[in-house]
UniProtKB/TrEMBL annotation:
Leader sequence residues: 1-24
SUPFAM superfamilies in the record: Metallo-hydrolase/oxidoreductase
Highest taxon in the source lineage: Eukaryota
Annotated keywords: Signal
Pfam families from the UniProt entry: Lactamase_B
Domain Metallo-beta-lactamase as annotated: residue spans: 107-365
Organism taxonomic ancestry: Eukaryota, Viridiplantae, Chlorophyta, Pseudoscourfieldiophyceae, Pseudoscourfieldiales
Protein name listed in UniProt: Metallo-beta-lactamase domain-containing protein
Length: 456
């Protein structure tokens, strides 16, 4: 009797394990193998531990600019060719600083240069090491480009697309390097988010503790994987209930490793008192530095949207460059995330991006894209919205269960994008409403660490 019970338990355990493993293996990666192009390796030496990243190959109609590390000019092909004479400077030039592979905290930032003279920054990256590298790139590449005019660049504004740490933790470094800034301009909700962010040094401590504990369980050859023995023990030798707890505990530890390539310890507190917050839905800013000067080519529209990635999301529209800085309204090559939602509102915001008629979009993570990138993002939220509606109709009311179902059915291209398991966050927000407190946010990030934990 005892024996039969054991055997049954064994089979149940194996079945559960199989179900678990199968469900964590959708047809991942098939997407970019379809067109027979190998993943691209990029050299990001300044990104230190994260320097050797392998990127999914994106469809040809998606990338407007190669997905490289560091600073690139976006506007060369569109505006510079026609306006390079001495008498007519390139009124508006836009540069982006991108950090493949765009996963947790590998965010983009931007530089807007007016008349080869006035400089504005969009977002500030995740830690001061990266921000200093960004600043150095600005000084080397942009200032040198414009010294033919022997003018001094005058930094003016830092614009923030939203308040998440990977866009604001570099503020102090930026402030320090560019004295004489006019100010940091952000939406009131962004300022509120920033006030709730943990101080960088506190986050550094949490990451360090998690790294220490994780090191007992992790594979020395692959820091993001469990040690093979622990994996085996968890897979075959652990009662189901315990396995659930263990997976959750280890998943949380593993998720904290997303943050371990960053130098939060040497990152100063964000100077929130310097932020000029605005509350209107749309604000127009003159990029020419003066009150009103510069004409239409120097106007930037900052549009606040809500119910999207986070509470303070704005997009920055440069009509004369046909360009939009979309912040984290757009993720390309890496799964989108929604902390506020619902998908219906996120889609409305993406429709607003398209309605600008811009042709170039700078995402918060991933390569610069054209309109196709926005359309793809819209289709992703369509999928999430419709999938959750179907879950509810089918009585699958628990968010994890619904998310598993959507994860299994996630179509191409998103099943091949990095962090496809973020659909678990997106479904949770779609079902249970916005993430307001940091604890729930970290719990949802922690759950990301569980995916693939027991894969071999
Ligand atoms: C990566 O880039 C750095 C700096 O740009 C360079 O010094 C280094 O040689 C490059 N490494 C490889 C493997 O190409
Ligand atoms: C990255 O790649 C370079 C050259 O391929 C190699 O020398 C280096 O050890 C790698 N670094 C890491 C951190 O994997
Ligand atoms: C690490 O890799 C080496 C060589 O491939 C192997 O002999 C060793 O068992 C691996 N260690 C672990 C903990 O997986
Ligand atoms: C975008 O283009 C459409 C069609 O040409 C036009 O009706 C609309 O006014 C344009 N929108 C903007 C913001 O220019
Ligand atoms: Zn981000």
């Amino acid at each position: 009797m005892m024996m039969v019970g054991c055997v049954n338990a064994f089979f149940v355990l194996v079945a559960l394990l199989l179900a678990y493993v199968v469900h964590n293996h959708p047809s991942v990666r098939e997407y970019w193998q379809l067109d027979n192009r190998p993943p691209v390796a990029v050299n990001c030496s300044f990104m230190q531990l994260h320097r050797n990243v392998t990127l999914p190959t994106l469809p040809d109609d998606l990338e407007a600019l190669p997905w490289r590390c560091g600073l690139q000019e976006v506007t060369t092909t569109t505006t510079t060719t026609t306006t390079t004479t001495e008498s007519s400077p390139n009124r508006l030039r836009v540069f982006v600083f991108t950090q493949p592979d765009g996963t947790w905290c590998w965010s983009n930032a931007g530089v807007i240069v007016y008349d080869d003279e006035i400089l504005h920054i969009v977002d500030t990256l995740t830690d001061e090491h990266l921000t200093n590298h960004f600043i150095e790139a600005i000084q080397k590449q942009i200032v040198v480009v414009s010294t033919k005019k022997k003018r001094r660049m005058t930094p003016q504004w830092i614009f923030l697309t939203h308040g998440d740490i990977d866009h604001v933790y570099g503020l102090a470094a930026m402030r320090r390097s560019f004295v004489g800034f006019r100010g940091i301009l952000a939406h009131q909700s962004t300022l509120d988010t920033m006030a709730k962010n943990p101080p960088p040094k506190k986050l550094a401590q949490s990451v360090m503790r998690a790294r220490l504990v994780w090191s007992f369980f992790s594979d020395k050859n692959d820091s993001m994987s469990l040690h093979p023995w622990i994996k085996r023990l968890l897979s075959y030798g652990t009662p189901h209930v315990l396995q659930g707890y263990a997976v959750r505990f280890l998943g949380n530890l593993r998720a904290m490793q997303f943050f371990s390539p960053f130098d939060f310890d040497n990152t100063a507190d964000v100077p929130t008192k310097d932020v000029i917050a605005f509350d209107e839905r749309e604000r127009h800013v003159s990029l020419s530095g003066g009150g009103g000067g510069g004409g239409n080519d120097a106007i930037m529209k900052i549009v606040h949207v809500s119910g999207t990635h986070s509470y303070g999301d704005v997009f920055l529209h440069l009509p004369s460059a046909n360009l939009v800085f979309a912040g984290d309204l757009l993720f390309i090559g890496v799964s989108p995330i929604m902390w506020t939602g619902p998908a219906r509102k996120f889609k409305a915001a993406l429709h607003m991006l398209l309605a600008t008629n811009a042709t170039t979009f700078v995402p918060g993570h991933g390569p610069v894209c054209g309109r196709r990138g926005v359309e793809l993002s819209l289709a992703y939220w369509d999928f999430v919205e419709a999938g959750v509606r179907q879950c509810v109709a089918d009585g699958v009311s628990e968010s994890r269960a619904c998310a598993s179902r959507l994860f299994d059915r996630l179509p191409s291209p998103w099943n091949a994008w990095l962090g496809a398991e973020r659909v678990f966050i997106n479904v949770d927000v779609e079902m249970n409403g916005p993430v307001v407190d940091v604890a729930r946010k970290f719990a949802l990030i922690g759950a990301q660490g569980e995916h693939g934990l027991l894969d071999t």
